[in-house]
From TrEMBL:
Protein name per the record: Glutamate racemase
GO molecular function, one term: glutamate racemase activity
Alphabetical keyword list: Isomerase
Biological source species: Streptomyces globosus
Keyword check for Electron transport: no
Keyword flag Isomerase: yes
Amino acid sequence: MDSGIGLLAAAAAMRRQRPDADLVLSSDPDGMPWGPRTPADLAGRALGVARAAAALRPDALIIACNTATVHALPAIRAELEPAIPVIGTVPAIKPAAAAGGRVAIWATPATTGSPYQRGLIRDFAAGAHVTEVPCPGLADAVEAGDADAVSAAVAAAAALTPADVTDVVLGCTHYELVEPAVRAALAERTGGAGLVYHGSAEPVAVQALRRIGAAPDPGAPATGTLTVLLSGSEGALSAAALAYAEGRLLAGEGAAVGGR
């Protein structure tokens, strides 16, 4: 679940881990963007999206949104667990900082400098040199599938990224959908040699499987179905979603599209 198509990265990661998994993508096009909402309002919208997904009785629910995890994880867990395990998404600051290098954290302007992100840096990146890089407009551009706006926002963020960084944290789930563009922009600035990128999609998918006692099985038959919920009503992947490799993976390559 997410406000929009930021959930594609985690869903595609789950599809790669388990081609036989039935996936439900629950988003909120009627209420997005969630970022500018008050914490209480955002939590209410997120809870509605979670309830829509929970009505289909999934084995687990991934909150594939950093902002919703911050503001809505306790409320969603209180309502759904233990019947449905709920997995939140946290920026991959800890693994990025483990080697004590020079870390750039790309995040939304609201998250950059926030007590939440500063707390993660304090707790998990004390031995690293960290630069917080705000990325105004990038999530919105990704959501709209606007390639020109994505390029402009990525270029602006790349210009704010120190040339000597060793690790880059993609601190918004939307950013993982345009990782190739980020890599290309930073390759021009830093040379790209040895630069390591850290997203949340794969770790979150693995954690969800762990919570339900399942194991990754990339070689499983590609029999998994796809159900798309848009503000609670069944729908289809948007044209913007299909502009990304993750969306195309979810819509095809042997996966049935339809109900559970």
